[in-house]
Predict the 3D structure of the following.
Amino acid sequence: MAGEKIVVVGGGIGGLTAAAALAQAGFAVTLLEATAAFGEVGAGVTLAPNAMKGLAHIGIADAVAAAGVEPPRQRIQHWQDGRTLLQFERGDSRERYGAPYVYIHRADLHAILVEAARLAGVELLTGSTVASVHAEGVKTQDGRSVPGSIVVGADGLKSVVRKLFDPQPAYFTGHVAWRMLAPAEGPLADLAQWPGMHIGPGRMVVRYPLRGSRILNMVFFARQGGWNEEGWAIPGSAEELVATYDGWCDEVQAMVAAASRGPLFKWALNARTPLSDWLIDDRITLLGDAAHAMTPFLGQGAACAIEDAIVLARAMGAAGSTAEGLRRYVAARRDRANFIQLESNENADRLQGDDSSLFGLGNLRNEETLGLFAYDCRTTPV
Ligand SMILES: Cc1cc2nc3c(=O)[nH]c(=O)nc-3n(C[C@H](O)[C@H](O)[C@H](O)COP(=O)(O)OP(=O)(O)OC[C@H]3O[C@@H](n4cnc5c(N)ncnc54)[C@H](O)[C@@H]3O)c2cc1C
């Protein structure tokens, strides 16, 4: 089994983690990435402790923590008067969950992952858009055949590999978002020191610090029909943002004002319905968004992709055959991923309910109380 050739389609967070972990486990891995160069958008990502445990497995947790910011705490605030509805300690995450809670710039995480894959001996092919999967591997849009007895589709929301499992396109979730990075100065400096979110009916604003807390990452969410253009780099209009958050508290107005100075990007949130199986012919499988693209309301999409990647490599390393390894991977991952996907959708309703004052007074269901942080992809049975 070791030495078996595996093709990973897609060099996002999930594909790069899987490629590095599989190569470290002794497989011969080729990763194909459609874009001409590896990279990520100018935005942040939260790596909850369960994600950081996966990155520890491939030996990059310290580098990621050093490049990121570990918040001491977070809070959820009322949209109109800004009062704190709930607050969470995050500084004790290493003691409580065995790994830190980290905010990081996506480009910084990506650079560390690419280096880890390269060091593990992964063959990295950029400018290689996979057009189809065939019996001996995959074929690229420009007609090259890349051999591999196993194909892992880590090609994201619009996955080509997923089409073999499910012909339906991704669906529009009814949510749109605007994203923006700004210097953490003036009124934004305090918000960077105490990250979190403001919640209101049908809307919420998330903010957290990046790069030594010099930058504030802001994401503005709203339920909005009639527009479902997907893509990370569609320019957003400041007027629309101002109108959407009219009447929200001063802190939100400060973020709207900073975001209005641009550049501001807007995108529609699309997702996937859960699949009943992630395995075809005992040799083609999926991971990350290709398998289970979810809404971002638990901050767990990338975490789930990282968990998939590590469990895949461990299952493949532990099994007597590649077919058995893939089956053990799917059996270990599918229910958890489906659960997180469904809870993430429901969390949008919980966070953006009609009466924000009631938030957290009842039975709180969030990424922490659901037990997601405690999961350890390095030791979960495969
Ligand atoms: C607003 C928002 C905020 C989020 N915040 C968080 C968060 O805080 N924490 C968290 O854990 N998750 C978060 N997520 C989710 C997270 O970003 C995704 O789940 C994660 O990036 C998925 O990684 P992936 O590798 O599966 O897919 P992707 O990152 O989409 O990577 C897929 C890669 O495949 C390539 N590709 C596509 N098609 C082909 C092809 N045919 N051939 C070759 N290559 C191809 C693409 O170019 C891309 O590089 C958020 C999502 C959104 C929308």
The chain has a mean pLDDT of 94. Residues 177 and 267 are 5 Å apart (CA to CA). The longest strand covers residues 171-183. The pocket of flavin-adenine dinucleotide is lined by residues 9-15, 32-35, 45-46, 51, 129-130, 154-157, 160, 177, 219, 269, 288-289, 296, 299-303, 305 (CB under 6 Å).
